[in-house]
Amino acid sequence: MRTLYLDCFSGISGDMFIGALIDAGGDSTLLEEELQKLNISEEYKLSWRKVVKNGISSTKFDVELSETADHKYADGHQHNHKHEDVDHNHEHEHSDHHHKHEHSDHHEHSHHHSHRAYQDIVKLIDGSQLSQEVKETSLNIFRKIGEAEGLIHGISLEKVHFHEVGAVDSIIDIVGASILINKLEIQKIKSSPVCVGAGKVHIDHGIYPIPAPATLEILKGVPLQQSNIKSELTTPTGAAIVSVLSEEFCTVPSMTVQSVGYGAGTKDFEKHPNVLRVIIGEEN
Fold it and tell me: How far does the signal peptide extend, from start to end residue (predicted)?
């Protein structure tokens, strides 16, 4: 049984997940080609590169939004769903206070505008030429996030607008994750308990304790791991990926390891590598 094990000792986000799978042997060129089937390639540019996090060589995956995305989905009300860690006593802990969906400062404005309704995302994925398996996995992950957002805000799934999560980069993160799992022929996914971080986070409704409300809702039923790192380590997208895909939460299973990958997060901590480790192998 070809198994993927997620070691979430430093949390999980969509870009960390894709970076880790590319690092473990996922085909990045094929990923780019498959993502073109969504027909939104004019809205973004992908990049991936090797970085070193606290001595660990890892792959950093980024989605950069184009101006097209900014203008196409600007609609008067700005939902700034930027997450920012709020803990000034621990500033030395993280050089980057921004949430992972802000991949670089000059693209920050795009994230304030780029949102689609849940139904738009379903239509986008359903209407694509992606394989049925990839469509189903992607839609299951988006549904998990949509239901959590709806519950938090007291609205039906149909009325949910994905401000942060519906930004183009998250569509790419989720569909990209589904493509790589399919292409790597993963049959089973297991995970460690999920580290969410500590402290407070600033979202568009105010300052909340970590994990943020939507992230916590998505992680119902998932074992969490305590952390003293004052930062948001797990994003809603990462939470949904691990929650929907993992069949079991455990320590490393009995397996013959075939490849290991490290996906880099955006943040830097003094004594803690901000990476997601994945292990692919044959379960014994």
Answer: none
Per-position b or e across 91-102, b if 16+ CB within 10 A of its CB: eebbeebbbbbb
State which residues of the chain have pLDDT below 70.
Answer: 68-115, 163-166
| C-alpha span between 275 and 11 (Å, rounded) | 8
CA distances (Å), origin 1, targets 190, 254, 256, 257, 262: 12, 11, 10, 12, 22
Q: Is 161 a member of any domain?
A: yes
* The pair of three-digit structure tokens given for residue 260, joined into one six-digit string: 């290991």
Q: Judge if the upstream peptide bond of residue 253 is cis by omega within 30 degrees of 0.
A: no
Measured CA to CA in angstroms, residue 266 lies from 61, 73, 133, 263 at distances of 10, 25, 30, 10
pLDDT for the residue numbered 106? 36
Helices (H), 154-264: 168-183, 213-218, 236-245
| Domain housing 9 | 1-64+113-281
- In a 10 Å sphere around its CB, with 0-12 CB exposed, 13-18 middle and 19+ buried, how is residue 220 labelled? exposed
Please give the model's pTM, rounded to 2 decimal places.
0.85
Residue (of 197, 213, 207, 245) closest to 148 by Cα position:
213
Residue 256 within any structural domain of the chain:
yes
In the sheet that holds 206-209, the strands lie side by side as: 84-85, 200-203, 206-209
Look at the chain and report how many structural domains it folds into: 1
